[in-house]
Amino acid sequence: MRIIYLVLISILLFSCKKDTKNPQGAIDHQKSTTLKTDQYKIEGAFKKFKDSTMVGLFINNDIVDSTYIINGKFQFEGDFTEITDARILVKKTDFFADFWIENGIITLKNESRNRLNTEILGGKVQTEENSLTEKIVAVSKKRDSIYKILSNPNTDLKIKNASNAYLKVIQEEEKQVCFSFLDTHPNSVVSMRLLNIFKGVWEKDIIRF
Question: Mean per-residue pLDDT for 104-123?
Answer without folding.
Answer: 94
